[in-house]
Design brief:
The chain has 5 helices and no strands. By secondary structure, the protein is mainly alpha-helical.
Length: 124
């Protein structure tokens, strides 16, 4: 098994992961019925996003967190998302970039979940 090294590897990772998301009883409804994800547009953005994080390209220009604010998602969703992502990486790749992908995904899940959690100390 090889490491994540090329744009083709990024595409394989993203496509395989989102195939799992679309087959998942918890996540598929959020992506398809609530967010109404336009998959032909979304997938190339995800190739650019992960290529930037893992291959240091600069194509991705965006603010991914903002799209998640209106969604009815919480800890269970992020745990499932992360579980599917980690399993996808482990199924396809091995090496330092694969480990970085898993680390970055864990950080993303943790940060997004924390930012979406209502703050009981907020007076707004």
């Amino acid at each position: 098994m090889s490491d994540i090294q090329t744009e083709a590897d990024i595409k394989l990772l993203v496509d395989t992961f989102y195939d799992k998301v679309n087959a998942d009883a918890l996540l598929a409804p959020v992506f398809n019925d609530v967010a109404h994800v336009d998959w032909p547009a979304h997938l190339p953005r995800m190739y650019d996003f992960w290529s930037g994080l893992l291959l240091h390209t600069t194509r991705y220009q965006g603010r991914p967190f903002l799209k998640h604010i209106p969604l009815p998602i919480g800890g269970t969703h992020f745990q499932r998302w992360l579980s599917l992502f980690l399993a996808t990486v482990d199924d396809l790749f091995a090496g330092p970039v694969a480990e970085l992908a898993k680390l970055r995904a864990g950080s993303i899940a943790q940060i997004f979940e924390a930012r979406l959690r209502p703050n009981p100390l907020s007076i707004l």
